[in-house]
Amino acid sequence: MKLFEFEAKDILHKYGITTPMGKVVSSPAEAEAAAAEIGAPVALKSQVLVSGRGKSGGILFANGPAEAKEIATRLFGSTIKGLPVNNILVEQKIDLIEEYYASLTIDRQAKKYAVMASTSGGVDIEEIARTAPEKISRHHVDPGTGFSQDTALELAARLPDIDREDAIRLGNILHTLYGIAMDCDAELVEINPLAKTETEELVACDARVIIDDNALFRHPEFADSLYIRLEASPAEVEARKQGLAYVDLDGDIGIIGNGAGLVMATLDVVHLFGGKPANFLDTGGGVGPEVVRKGLTVIMSKPQVKAILVNILGGVTRCDLVAQGIVEALNESTARKPIVVRMIGTKEEEGIRILKEAGIESYSNMEDAIKEVVRI
Predict the structure, then answer these.
(1) Which of 5, 7, 32, 190 is flagged as catalytic?
(2) Is 101 a known active-site residue?
(3) Neighbours of 333 (CB within 10 A)
(4) Helix 289-300, helix 234-241: angle, nearest 10
(5) Which CATH number is 74's domain given?
(6) Mean pLDDT of successive 10-residue segments in the chain (376 residues)?
(7) Assuming Cys at both sites, which of 74, 157, 220, 247 could form a disulfide with 280, CB separation 3.0 to 4.6 Å?
């Protein structure tokens, strides 16, 4: 789950990292009042879950309350990279003399957290790596030993052209980011830019935090947020509510299976035979009719879906219960779409019988079922 900038900054502030004075608003009048309260030139920052907002016109500056209201009027109702602007963070404009970069993320190839810092903040870390790799300092965290304060200070001190006091401040922030990641189950905690002001303070001017979806049950403060996270499609939002492992794709063949590997293989073979999957949906193992019914209901509600493929390998999953869920979904849904079923394994005969009574033919061979759904 991606957090909005203001949510990420709330976390940083809680852990003692300095952030600009700011307030989230949802109307031009509120933007005017917030600018008056801050009492200084302000930045108006569109709260959308994409990067590159500044280049897309989503971050603008105002010298006073009246100008803040006028700019907010333009921003509200606009779109940034296809996402509507529903909320704006109005915050103090920071006068900076240097920009740093600080982050902690998962290096999936190394299977470890990677802590990174740079003396070239304000631009994408990929651009820094391409044009000035010597300005990046990295450290892979051993999960057995963690990331100590001394290691953080050493990492910061390796950066070129950084004085001792800044290295200490930056090291302390890097160590704090690690603590945030551990406490929040974060896949990414990033500050860019981390601005140095004339008073020698380091201020988080922008921040990104991504929480591991699999850990959201430990963080209801994020899952229950009132702010709409429009990076998810309507089908993904509904599937998340139902507790389903679902990802939207841009094809027209709905896919449901039991097991992530099986579903991924199904997507590949659908592509092989000329079809385009509309989604990834994994029911998991040992499911009952209710989970299957919910999954099919989500897929059938997607307008782009023209046909649905159900691919079941019955081990701990019983084919008769899956068949029961399919029939229940068809009986309840107002959207009638053809369904092709491949079913083999535990209680296979009973499952085939239930489907046959409902007028649904099933296949034992996956390729035959996929060829049929692509033909349809």
Answers:
(1) 190
(2) yes
(3) 15
(4) 170
(5) 3.30.1490.20
(6) 93 97 96 94 93 88 96 93 89 94 94 94 83 90 93 95 94 97 96 94 96 87 60 71 86 95 97 96 91 93 94 94 95 88 96 95 95 96
(7) 247
